[in-house]
User: Fold these one by one.
Assistant:
Number 1:
Amino acid sequence: MESNEIRSRFLKFFEARGHKIIPSSSLVPENDPSVLFTTAGMQQFKSYYTQEKNAEKDFGTKNVVSIQKCVRTVDIDEVGDDTHLTFFEMLGNFSFGGYWKKEAIQCAYEFITKELKLTIDYVSVFEGDEKTPADNESRMIWQKIDPKLVIKNHNRSDNFWGPTGEEGPCGPTTEIYINDVEIWNIVFNEFYKTKEGKYEQLKIKGVDTGMGFERLLVQVQKKNNVYKTDLFNNEKTREERVIADHIKTSLFIISDGVVPSNTGRGYVLRRLIRRAVRFSKESLEKIVERNKKIYAGVYNLDDKGEIKKEEKKFRETLERGLKEFEKGIDPFILATTYGFPVELTLELAKEKGIKINLENFNKKMAEHQKLSQTSSAGMFKGGLANHNEKTIKLHTAHHLLLAGLQAVVDKNIKQKGSNITEERLRMDFLCDHKLTDEEKKKVEDFVNNKIKSGLDVICREMPLKEAEKIGAEMEFGTKYPDVVSVYFIEDKNGNQISKEFCGGPHVKNTSELGHFKIQKEEAVSAGVRRIKAVLL
Ligand SMILES: [Zn+2]
């Protein structure tokens, strides 16, 4: 089934069930300077949930359906693997005080199994905790629909949504899994969390669902990665994939009115195009045209020549930088005045056997960046952006987890990506099998044992070469400067449990962490597993 057909089936399916079809909103959120880009389908409907706007008045119904364009750049370093993308579409149906759990679950089940003829692996429901009860209603609905269906209990970090701030609407979720991959997330806005931390029943309840289109396509078209679906061109190497992804995203962003610049959205766009240029020896024009064809009849895409213009400018920068480099110009000046990437300076220097004093460069760069750092530059990449006590603890636990996986499961396990919120840590890693319950238990024991031992966490600055020599963990595909900081977790005798390239911050001693628990272990794609874990 082709992507166009799935899109139209989705919309028609819900239209036939009393939903009004609403077009995707712009990638540039209206009246919301707090976010750079639209990242979810519900964003344009926020004020219908809070009743500031009236859906019946605006749409003639309380139920709507949409396919939303979304851009997320937090996982940009992961682009090139089988799943991560910076542009994606989100299929969603929404109800603002119309139907409730029974109808939402019934519709999702029918669409997946009857329209798309996919087999559900299992579903998950919220297991309940001291704050809000288990979602037995959803469990019973699923059971009634299909008594043989596997229903898993998941905890708050997985199956409870919101609130986005200190207070606000929130509620349990139920998720559909196909081949161990989460396909559809259905959120039931059931409670209002007050400032005092109380969960009160909402008078007007809401349903908000989201299904990543590219992920769904992988399942429907029976492929093992997104680049083999009809939204891509079977890109195989990391370079080809980064170019395809970044140029697609750039084309969509420009079509919604953004132009390359040095601040905010324009800066993200500029970085995307320049990153694609660096990976590509050929002109990017072909890729722009290919994407226009892929989405013809679905979205109106026009880059108004901006990509070509930015590409030309950046290629000139690269060329000019090259000439200056050959004259022996200081790499700091090359980078700041000519915009010449330091990685290129390093590559060229290596080719020509020139030694560059990078310690000096990094120092100057650090001072320079302190002066010129903009909020948008910070927003370009995720990482441990949120430096509060909870995320810092989870970050240290993250390092112990990697060490534990290597000690218990396979010493060759490599990290592929990570994400830390206040509530949980998430780690993607390369591993050829699903962890057994015994392995999970052993990894937990390993981490908890290290927490109990009260090990010191120490940061040491060292030359990149030396850090590589001692085998410090680095993230695949990341470029590091010449002098790096390495975080060690070690006992009193100097035995190292963990050593990772890392910008920190971390706790001083592992005894501060509490109790470590793995909440979930699942597949992200072939050969890549994901663990979500918490500290209790
Ligand atoms: Zn780290």
Number 2:
Amino acid sequence: MTQQINSCRCGTTWTGLARAHCGACHRTFNTAGLFDAHRRDGACRDPASVWHGGGYLRQVDGIWSGPAMPERAQAAKRGRVTEAVAAHAPEPE
Ligand SMILES: [Zn+2]
Ligand SMILES: [Zn+2]
């Protein structure tokens, strides 16, 4: 497998075709979707304050990525704690 290495005039390099580097704020995003999420009204937002896919973006090895745990996974984790209770008294949906 060959990995394409991309670079920007700001000196940032990154790999992966799916990744997106912002030419305005020069942050690198793991996916184009995350890139889109940080753009609002033609300006860049601080990714740390961008809510996307069930959590705030976080920086991993210099690349802004989605939340550590998707909403479903978090729900499953919470469910694990209350599983026994829920089995006897399921919450009304
Ligand atoms: Zn930006
Ligand atoms: Zn750049």
